[in-house]
């Protein structure tokens, strides 16, 4: 039986007593102890990113809980300070963001209050970005309206779609999202964003008040 041996590198080993190989084998346990047999540690930059990721996760969790609270209690409008009095939401911030005990929280009331306020601000910003809440005026900075609960916004939106879908231009395909947005901004409030309208239309569709005819086109039943 014949065998063929191939190699990409050829060199002659002049080591009849295998001293090089023995030395290498004796060195391996030391290399393992010094390099491999250690607890892995993230680089400092990675640790910072990991901390930022945890903070974002906490804010996202808080924003979800705020949305659930607003819908469950059918709240149409609120001030941010009012949310800071809801014990379940505040407890969530203390647990996820601060990670302190009740005794520590009491002894550091000032910094804790600032951290709670910051957490609520970031969570509401996220809800605004998703169109879940909105503001009707730039002057009332802390007054927010809940998109899925604002009956006046619902009424205006349905009236826009219902009226325009009777026109030949929109009768077949329905009204495009951006057309609906433009009409709402003109007839209701100029500060309504596309994210708000998208969130509202999704809500109305879930509740069978509008239907999608094609991508981003809507009509009423």
TrEMBL record:
<keyword id="KW-0158">Chromosome</keyword>
<keyword id="KW-0238">DNA-binding</keyword>
<dbReference type="GO" id="GO:0003677">
    <property type="term" value="F:DNA binding"/>
</dbReference>
<dbReference type="InterPro" id="IPR036390">
    <property type="entry name" value="WH_DNA-bd_sf"/>
</dbReference>
<dbReference type="InterPro" id="IPR012340">
    <property type="entry name" value="NA-bd_OB-fold"/>
</dbReference>
<dbReference type="Pfam" id="PF09170">
    <property type="entry name" value="STN1_2"/>
</dbReference>
<dbReference type="InterPro" id="IPR042082">
    <property type="entry name" value="CST_Stn1_wHTH1_sf"/>
</dbReference>
<keyword id="KW-0779">Telomere</keyword>
<keyword id="KW-0539">Nucleus</keyword>
<feature type="domain" description="Stn1 C-terminal">
    <location>
        <begin position="58"/>
        <end position="221"/>
    </location>
</feature>
<protein>
    <recommendedName>
        <fullName>CST complex subunit STN1</fullName>
    </recommendedName>
</protein>
<dbReference type="InterPro" id="IPR040260">
    <property type="entry name" value="RFA2-like"/>
</dbReference>
<dbReference type="GO" id="GO:0005634">
    <property type="term" value="C:nucleus"/>
</dbReference>
<dbReference type="InterPro" id="IPR036388">
    <property type="entry name" value="WH-like_DNA-bd_sf"/>
</dbReference>
<dbReference type="GO" id="GO:0000781">
    <property type="term" value="C:chromosome, telomeric region"/>
</dbReference>
<dbReference type="InterPro" id="IPR015253">
    <property type="entry name" value="CST_STN1_C"/>
</dbReference>
């Amino acid at each position: 039986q014949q065998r063929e041996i191939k190699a990409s590198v050829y060199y002659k080993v002049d080591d009849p007593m295998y001293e090089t190989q023995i030395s290498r084998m004796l060195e391996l346990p030391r290399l393992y102890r010094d390099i491999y047999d250690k607890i892995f540690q993230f680089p400092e930059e990675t640790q910072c990113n990991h901390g930022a990721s945890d903070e974002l996760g906490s804010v996202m969790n808080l924003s979800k809980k705020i949305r659930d609270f607003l819908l469950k209690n059918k709240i149409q409008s609120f001030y941010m300070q009012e949310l800071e009095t809801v014990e379940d939401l505040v407890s969530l911030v203390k647990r996820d963001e601060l990670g302190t005990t009740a005794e520590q929280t009491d002894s550091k009331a000032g910094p804790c209050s600032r951290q709670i306020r910051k957490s609520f601000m970031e969570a509401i910003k996220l809800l605004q970005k998703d169109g879940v809440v909105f503001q009707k005026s730039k002057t009332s900075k802390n007054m927010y309206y809940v998109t899925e609960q604002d009956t006046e916004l619902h009424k205006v939106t349905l009236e826009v779609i219902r009226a325009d879908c009777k026109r030949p231009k929109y009768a077949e395909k329905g009204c495009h999202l951006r057309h609906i947005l433009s009409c709402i901004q003109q007839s209701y409030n100029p500060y309504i964003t596309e994210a708000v309208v998208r969130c509202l239309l999704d809500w109305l569709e879930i509740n069978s008040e509008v239907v999608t005819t094609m991508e981003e086109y809507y009509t009423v039943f």
